[in-house]
Amino acid sequence: MKKRTDRKIAIAGTAAAAVLLPTVMVGLAQAGIGVPTGRSEASGNSQTIPSFGPATQPSAPGAPASASPKAAPKLPSVPLNSNPFKTGGGSPGTGDPDTNRGSHGSQPHLPAGTGSGKYAKAPDGATITGVKKVNSRQFDVTIASPALGAAVKTRVMIPKGWKSNTTKTWPVVYAYHGGSNKYTSWTKDSNIEQVVGPYNAMVVMPEGGWNGSYTNWWNGGKGGIPEWETFHINEVIPLMERNFHAGGVRAAIGLSSGGQGAITYAERHPGKFKYAASYSGALNITAPGMPVILTSMNRDAGTAIWGDPLTARANWRAHDATVNVSKLKGVGVYVSCGNGQPGPYDPASTPPTHAGRIGEQLAGTMNENFVAAAKQAGVPITANLYGPGMHNWKYWKVELAKSWPKIAAAIGARKS
């Protein structure tokens, strides 16, 4: 009987997906899912896309069954070749681990040609191979990463008074960028220099991949490269602490898919972060209908990131911020999101088919679910679901400034 019921659910999901998918093929890309242009669906690295994800949204531990979050909204059609909104411009860098399909699923290893270097290594052998000064307070650090099988960059903003030859450490903010963007996003697109710059805090902005989704990829169940979570937690953090005097009091912040990363990293690594902040983050990836949207949106990766939503459901749940919200007890949390309607920083005439509207509407639903689950689990958080507003930096700049006092207090950052 259960198999017959599951089949009925799958058939119903297929019908729903046929209506829903065209509406989000652009919008959800801005929630951290890249959609390359000029490529056919068949040219991607996707496995077969299932017709439907989890049939019901699992509640947070101890939550009453009657408090189920809402389903994903129905939206109007969007042309598949439309991409009116981006979290940033450009294209993936040469050697981007996400687009280097030949390396996917390989065992972690240092990239070829990595020398011994003069810097202290991470426990797994990850090492700094170069440091380039961007300006008086910023450096671009090249890291040879076994977890990625490649050399990628991390931008570091040092506080005033920082010196390389000291034993002093500084509170640190790890800032994660959104999908279809790069490690330069926070200094290029945001106001982080103005907001955090006056404080004695270091900001570390690591590469997160073009569509990395802040996770160790499933790769058909065999794991392996790219391992973004391992890179960020087990390589970047110790390298910063061993070589740049980053302290052990940390905060994680992020926007869009980076917001998902900030929250799930705090959940999955207890004690690692004192505070976690997400701006329009993808915080409920197993919400009804969401798995099929996510796997279909990401043409290059598809189910390679978290696996098939049915057969690898446990892995999806393990990376869902809403499902694991109870693990945030003792961590300061700030989440914010709009609802996709044109807000004070958007043209009032923006059509419903605009990707920035669709992306934020979906993010809004996931954030509402997250906030409800936190309340049910008894996890105190600060939430600003501000209503009208689309998926863009005009809002994230405001939210960074609003959230910073709480972040600074949590990590002990003070004005220099």
In short:
With 416 residues, this protein is α/β, with parallel strands linked by helices.
| Cα-to-Cα separation, first versus last residue | 66 Å
Shape: globular
- The percent range for helix content is 25-40%
Q: Helical element count?
A: 9
Strand line-up of the largest beta sheet = 1-2-3-5-4-6-7-8-9
Strand content: 15-25%
Total count of strands: 9
H/E element order: HEEEEHHEHEHEHHEHEH
The quaternary structure here is single chain
Q: Show unreliable segments.
A: 1-73, 75-86
Largest sheet: 9 strands, mixed
Secondary structural class = alpha/beta
Radius of gyration over C-alpha positions, nearest whole angstrom: 20 Å
Q: Calculate the mean pLDDT score and round it.
A: 83
Question: What can you tell me about this protein's structure?
Answer:
The protein is α/β, with parallel strands linked by helices and 416 residues long. It has helices at 2-24, 185-189, 192-196, 228-243, 257-268, 290-297, 313-318, 355-377, 393-411, and strands at 127-135, 138-145, 150-157, 170-176, 202-206, 246-255, 275-279, 332-338, 382-387. It contains 9 helices and 9 strands. It has a 9-stranded mixed sheet with strand order 1-2-3-5-4-6-7-8-9, sandwiched between helices. It is globular, with a radius of gyration of 20 Å. The N and C termini lie far apart (66 Å). Residues 1-73 and 75-86 have low confidence and may be disordered.
